[in-house]
Amino acid sequence: MVPWLSPDDPFPPLERALGASSGAPGLLAASADLLPSRLIDAYRHGIFPWYSDGQPVLWWSPDPRMILRPDEFKVSPSLKKTLKRVLRDPAWEIRVDDDFAAVMRACANAPRRGQRGTWITSDVIDAYSSLHRIGDAHSIETWFAGQRVGGLYGVSLGTMFFGESMFASVTDASKIALSALVAHLRRNGVTLIDCQQNTAHLASLGGREIGRKPFIAHVRANVCAHAIPWRFDKSVLADWLGHGQGHTETPAVPTL
């Protein structure tokens, strides 16, 4: 039985999440509220919300957990070529927190293979926008010729980044934003990005699974660290590529 949380109830121990043999592995609890305070408490414990419109808020702690280590990020030859073009052409920009809610709306409207609808409802946008206003959630945006063409958003606590969603309206635009994020996180000593659940796309970029216990240990050790700065532009890519990073040659991954 999945416990129902009243507003003041703490999350149950993570070990009580449903197991692999259940129909919903990793499901930990359900609630009616998606308050900013509840969200922050969830992320500090390695828990995230994911549910469909019309459902209660469902809270998850899967085992294993998909993660991406910035120093394991895979840059294909084609993506490296694209990043160099982005650096040369002033029409390309990386903006941070230009319009957080707009990025969330774009992610909500992005088509997902095998998925119908989105969990990024207006209530979810409002909740994460509240985190953004207090400096705990950020958007990294790819712009071309004055138009936002891709980006991502996530939650940042201490030296821990929890990725939420990405979108692209032109080829590789979300990968450009992710590359800038990886470069920024490496510069600031962040060693792990939470990707929540396994997808082939994330695996192609270097994502992999780790067990819940080491993931939670990493979260607890990093969420209380001093917050990192959240101001950068595409020059972070120049520093990263110029110091021999992003050089991993892997087979070209499918374009978005």
Automatic annotation (TrEMBL):
Keyword field contains Cell inner membrane: no
Subcellular compartments: Cytoplasm
Chief place of localization: cytoplasm
Entry's EC annotation: 2.3.2.6
Coiled coil residues, start to end: none
Catalytic activity: L-phenylalanyl-tRNA(Phe) + an N-terminal L-alpha-aminoacyl-[protein] = an N-terminal L-phenylalanyl-L-alpha-aminoacyl-[protein] + tRNA(Phe); N-terminal L-lysyl-[protein] + L-leucyl-tRNA(Leu) = N-terminal L-leucyl-L-lysyl-[protein] + tRNA(Leu) + H(+); N-terminal L-arginyl-[protein] + L-leucyl-tRNA(Leu) = N-terminal L-leucyl-L-arginyl-[protein] + tRNA(Leu) + H(+)
Short name of any one Pfam family annotated for the protein: Leu_Phe_trans
GO cellular component: cytoplasm
Superkingdom per UniProt: Bacteria
GO molecular function: leucyl-tRNA--protein transferase activity
Keyword terms of this UniProt record: Acyltransferase, Cytoplasm, Transferase
Family annotation (InterPro entries): Acyl_CoA_acyltransferase, Leu/Phe-tRNA_Trfase, Leu/Phe-tRNA_Trfase_C, Leu/Phe-tRNA_Trfase_N
SUPFAM superfamilies tied to this protein: Acyl-CoA N-acyltransferases (Nat)
GO biological process: protein catabolic process
Protein purpose: Functions in the N-end rule pathway of protein degradation where it conjugates Leu, Phe and, less efficiently, Met from aminoacyl-tRNAs to the N-termini of proteins containing an N-terminal arginine or lysine.
Family: Belongs to the L/F-transferase family.
HAMAP family for the chain: Leu_Phe_trans
Protein name stated in the entry: Leucyl/phenylalanyl-tRNA--protein transferase
